[in-house]
Design a protein that fits this description.
The complex is a heterodimer of chains A (about 180) and B (about 525). Chain A has about 180 residues and is mostly helical. Chain A has 10 helices and no strands. The longest helix of chain A has 28 residues, at about 135-160. Classes of the chains: A mainly alpha (about 180), B alpha/beta (about 525).
């Protein structure tokens, strides 16, 4: 799969709806407070686009099954999970996370992973952590060039300088004998 | 413009001889002396040495071409663009092992940590005695290692590039009286940007992308990115080239074929056996795809009550080598908050509370020299890895996590999160005994790796190995392997330099008989 394949991926609308309903369940409260649920799901969509196609198909099928299966869960009164109030949505999610089958448990973990990745990759959330790696990169990049530019240039020149491989070194002891 | 297009290098930044899918407008047939599939540690090194030696070399790379300028702190864009399948590749077993491979020009060297260690002497001795390899002992390998180290500039870190998390690891090791050594890395005055795994944004890390690839191109090699090689073409036992597809300028897939006098597979220990298998290559040994070892890794997250800011400073500046004879190493490896959050059991507000201390975390990992082997099977043309962690290695992981926790508590950690599902956080050194004394199911261990090895192992005996002393496939003609698939056993240290040194040695072997390939 090429990177362009991953960029073309758009999750079906019902999948986005379920993911959006899960943001408040798995991500910290700042996601809702800052109103970034859509952006988290956009990010999750990009992540899903980069996954192996079988894995992605399984995840989409899992999300659909997860959403619809809540209809037969008595407390839901026949509603799909994305239509449940937050407390019920959390209970339904936790039921899967601690589910009887490994498939349920692994699915619940995978959904959490793609959503919290989107949450903590969001610049607003990173700012709340004081995490500004690009500032650090820019600072040390400049320091490196200021201090070591001569040695860097010397090494770069050496990359292209002739240095042919000596012959006959590779022969084994036996062959040389 | 979509993100992938922004991430990819514009035409103006591309060196001559390097062609991306966008340059291809129709089916293409190329002729060369040597075609190499893969542009990572093995493929790029071999390409540079052979091109300088006068051979006409074509390199085919499945991933895209991305320059240093494209590498930023946007970790998830990097994972999507530089890693195969978004990094979500899994070896099936109990527990499953998540592994990552680079997929870009420069291969995994673009996203590795830059550790540059020679193969330990005891391992080379083992390869000599057990696999019957000649010209492989430490004294034989010395010139190849020396040459690689010169090219990729293997050095210790400048002190100012080392961050607090690594100093804490060293402090803990010193307090315990354990052996800790400064890491050797392929870098030219690494700035400590802590972005190794997402592409070095300063160009300091001497990945193949900025060392062997430009050198190969300079000496006339041609490199085509965005090409997926489907199979090796053969005439009887003789390899005659490769065929594949490339996504062209118009978004259409075009056929690409290369006719060559020597075909080299250098696409890593997962994809090399798959390429050989779907090309109909069989090994009488039954070892093709077998013998998979992968240095199982796990990590702990230690929370301190002081500022650490682990993203400020190079990762893995030190390695704790106290337990190397037992087969494991420790190092501090900062990872971005999104990936930390993915790997914890916490949810919602509890996750927020944990991550509030992200700037006080030290993330430390361990690498285990494994005792078991798995297998890469080729299913419908695609590789699938199977690997079962042995009880012995699971015990090593548990013991290592306990010892690593002792080290981190000695350095002042207040809390340590375990990589074992269902095992509570540790709050002090007295809690460490819980790790040693409790029964932790193997399946609860979170295991990851980036070191896959051994699936086309070298050996003198064709009934026990896939390739010969120099990586040429037994029972095939003009077909070689040049990546970590060749390792007869795991090596217990980071494999990049071993791959490069073996590639250099293979290049010298080929050039000794250069007329055969012209």
């Amino acid at each position: 799969m090429s990177t362009l394949d991953s960029e073309k991926f758009h999750a079906p609308k019902h999948v986005r709806r379920v993911l959006e309903s899960l943001v408040a369940v798995v991500c910290p409260p700042e996601a809702v407070e800052l109103g970034i649920e859509h952006e988290i799901v956009d990010h999750a969509e990009q992540t899903m686009g980069a996954l192996p196609s079988l894995f992605r198909a399984g995840l989409i099928a899992g999300i659909t099954a997860y959403d619809q299966a809540s209809r037969v869960w008595p407390p839901s009164k026949g509603k799909a999970s994305h239509d449940l109030p937050l407390a019920m949505r959390s209970r339904w999610y936790l039921a899967w996370l601690g589910g009887f089958t490994p498939v349920q448990r692994e699915f619940a973990k995978a959904v959490k992973q793609v959503l919290v990745l989107g949450h903590y990759e969001h610049p607003k959330i990173q700012a709340t952590l004081g995490y500004k790696p690009q500032q650090w990169i820019d600072k040390v990049k400049k320091r490196r060039l200021d201090v070591y530019s001569d040695e860097i240039a010397k090494h770069e020149a050496s990359i292209l300088a002739p240095d042919p491989l000596p012959r006959a070194r590779a022969r084994t002891d036996r062959e040389v004998r | 413009m979509v993100a992938a297009q922004k991430f990819a290098a514009p035409a103006a930044q591309r060196p001559k001889n390097l062609f991306t899918g966008g340059d291809i407008h129709g089916d293409l047939v190329l002729d060369a002396d040597v075609v190499i599939v893969g542009s990572g540690a093995g493929g790029a090194t071999l390409a540079a040495e052979l091109a300088e030696g006068g051979l006409d070399v074509v390199v085919l790379e499945e991933g895209g071409y991305h320059t240093t300028q494209a590498f930023t702190a946007d970790a998830s864009a990097a994972v999507r663009n530089l890693y195969r399948d978004g990094g979500a590749t899994i070896a099936i077993g109990d527990p499953p092992v998540m592994y990552q491979e680079g997929r870009a020009v420069g291969g995994s060297t673009v996203v590795n940590g830059g550790m540059s260690w020679r193969t330990p002497e005891k391992i080379l001795e083992r390869w000599h005695h057990e696999a019957g390899l000649t010209g492989i002992r430490a004294k034989d390998m010395e010139p190849w290692f020396e040459r690689v180290e010169r090219r990729i500039h293997v050095r210790h870190q400048d002190p100012e590039s080392i961050g607090v998390d690594n100093l804490i690891l060293k402090e803990g090791a010193d307090k315990k009286g354990w052996k800790v050594i400064p890491n050797l890395r392929n870098q030219v005055h690494c700035a400590g940007s802590n972005n190794c795994a997402f592409g070095c944004p300063t160009g300091a890390k001497q990945s193949a992308l900025v060392s062997y690839v430009p050198r190969a191109l300079h000496f006339g090699a041609r490199l085509y990115s965005d090409v997926r090689v489907e199979r090796i073409t053969r005439h009887g036992k003789r390899a005659t080239g490769v065929v594949g597809t490339v996504r062209g300028a118009n978004g259409k897939r075009h056929r690409l074929a290369v006719r060559a006098k020597l075909v080299v597979s250098a696409c890593g220990a997962i994809h090399t056996p798959a390429l050989l298998a779907r090309s109909g290559v069989r090994s009488p040994s039954g070892q093709l795809g077998g013998n998979l070892s992968l240095h199982p890794n796990t990590k702990v997250i230690a929370v301190f009550d002081r500022d650490v800011r682990g993203w400020e400073g190079v990762h893995q500046a030190f390695q704790v080598r106290e337990f190397q004879d037992e087969g494991f190493l420790f190092a501090a490896v900062n990872i971005p908050p999104g990936i930390v959050a993915m790997t914890t059991r916490h949810l919602g507000a509890e996750l927020g509370e944990l991550m509030h201390d992200y700037d006080k975390m030290v993330i430390a990992g361990m690498l285990v020299e494994d005792s078991n082997v798995g297998r890469v099977r080729t299913i419908n043309g695609s590789p699938q890895a199977f690997y079962q962690l042995s009880d012995f290695d699971a015990d090593k992981l548990k013991r290592g996590v306990g010892l690593l926790s002792e080290l981190l508590f000695a350095a002042g950690a207040k809390k340590i999160l375990m990589p074992f599902e269902g095992v509570p956080d540790l709050h002090g050194p007295d809690d460490v005994h819980k790790i040693f004394s409790s029964t932790i199911p193997k399946r609860s261990i979170e295991v990851v790796t980036v070191h896959m090895m051994g699936t086309a192992r070298m050996g003198r005996e064709r009934d026990r190995s896939v390739t010969d002393d120099f990586g040429f496939v037994h029972d095939a003609d003009r077909l070689a392997v040049c990546d970590a698939s060749l390792f007869p056993t795991p090596i217990g240290v980071n494999p990049m330099e071993t791959i490069m040194a073996l590639a250099t040695r293979t290049a010298a072997h080929i050039l000794d008989d250069v007329r055969r390939y012209r």
